[in-house]
Amino acid sequence: MFINTRKNKNTLALLLNPLLIFSILIQNVSSLSVSNISECPPIPARSGPSDIGDLRPDDIKVIGALGDSIMAGFALEGINDDLGGTGLLNLSTLTEFRGKSWGIGGDEGAITLANLVKHYNSSLEGPSVGKHFAYFCKEDDGDGCDAQFKHGEVDVLDAAISGGIAASLDMELDYLLQRMAQLPNVNLVTDWKMITIQIGSNDQCASCSGNNSDVTADAYAAYVDAAVQRIRNNVPRVLVNLVGTFNVSGLYELTRGQQYCRPLFGQPDWILNRMECSCFKGTDQDRANMDTLSAQYNAKLFEIYQKYNAEKTEGFAIAYTPANINVGGLPLEALSNVDCFHPGRLAHEWISKVVWNNIFKPQAEKPYSNILEYNANEQIYCPTEDDRIRID
Ligand SMILES: *[C@@H]1O[C@H](CO)[C@@H](O)[C@H](O)[C@H]1NC(C)=O
Ligand SMILES: *[C@@H]1O[C@H](CO)[C@@H](O)[C@H](O)[C@H]1NC(C)=O
Ligand SMILES: *[C@@H]1O[C@H](CO)[C@@H](O)[C@H](O)[C@H]1NC(C)=O
Ligand SMILES: *[C@@H]1O[C@H](CO)[C@@H](O)[C@H](O)[C@H]1NC(C)=O
Ligand SMILES: *[C@@H]1O[C@H](CO)[C@@H](O)[C@H](O)[C@H]1NC(C)=O
């Protein structure tokens, strides 16, 4: 455990004002961060809020998520052979470890946003549990990607699709809305819900493939906007937790020639991630463009946040959490060694902590300009009875 000193910046005031010292000490005592959520004290119970601006984590009864293979937990566990063996891909590694996905995984002991929420309300519905073989589906390929959604017992409300782009969100919502209505113990009208959306990594990669009209900043924004609007129109008592994009281009240099990534025949670029991301077969300029696009997506997400924030009601709100993680600065072991493209368990755990810690900060204090560096010992903020999931 350690005491968070985030608020303890003004040493001059400290020297000058004993009263302030006292109040800072009080603040610090009440502002606790721990390495294991089980060490966070419970929040004293109360009757739930009538307004979404008053939402605490223990009020959330239903959690859901939209996204891509990252949210699906694809390849999260890695090959697990200490880099020995043939290094050839084993089909069983092409698995979505949904129960460990940073945003929605509900496996026992997994460090995920859903399990952090669950610490405060054990009757949380929606977390995905377990794993299943990956199913890839981009846009509507004729069958509506129905095959993706044949694992409702595992996925529960993790509607993410491996390969998904912003254009896939509508299809993901088809599943999410239908599945939510089937859940036992859920009162669709009165229960408070949180739906996390994180999308854009494949969109950046697709900017280098032929037909990319779906992944311009405007197209991306229109798809995300439509998803938010559909949630607002169809789901009572819901907080949309919009999470920023990741600059995935950083993986290119990070993984080049790395033994951990199993380059075939010793060729530094014969790594699976070169196949997964079109821009990884392209030029440095292509990859720089990915970053520009990612920044444009984030600017659009912020506009969507502002637009819907202005239209919030007592039962609907949106929060935007920037996720400026330094992807190129991740330690290799935080990536999946299946492809060195997908985050592994360590990165998932870290992202869940970063997002959790930031949902209790008002918009003005969320990390917009600072770049977040991986920290294996990232602490977990313990919300107090006075904390709210901030939408302001
Ligand atoms: C957190 O603490 C609980 C209870 O002591 C323990 O069961 C669990 O394994 C710990 N989790 C981690 C990730 O260390
Ligand atoms: C494939 O990987 C799984 C999980 O690591 C392992 O249990 C299985 O034995 C492997 N299969 C082959 C054919 O190597
Ligand atoms: C969990 O949430 C439900 C619905 O909001 C509420 O009735 C229940 O008291 C909460 N449980 C805990 C332990 O806070
Ligand atoms: C390109 O994408 C647009 C938008 O999805 C689609 O309408 C169009 O048919 C596609 N064109 C080709 C040649 O695939
Ligand atoms: C992502 O790329 C953009 C555009 O180059 C840059 O402004 C931003 O700081 C980068 N973010 C991170 C976290 O690296």
TrEMBL record:
InterPro entries for this protein: GDSL, PLB1, SGNH_hydro_sf
Keyword Nucleus listed: no
Assigned keywords, A-Z: Signal
GO-annotated molecular function: phospholipase activity
GO-annotated biological processes: phospholipid metabolic process
Keyword flag Nuclease: no
One Pfam family matching this protein: Lipase_GDSL
Residues in the signal sequence: 1-31
PANTHER family recorded: GH22081P-RELATED (PTHR21325:SF31), PHOSPHOLIPASE B, PLB1 (PTHR21325)
Name the record gives this protein: Uncharacterized protein
Species: Phascolomyces articulosus
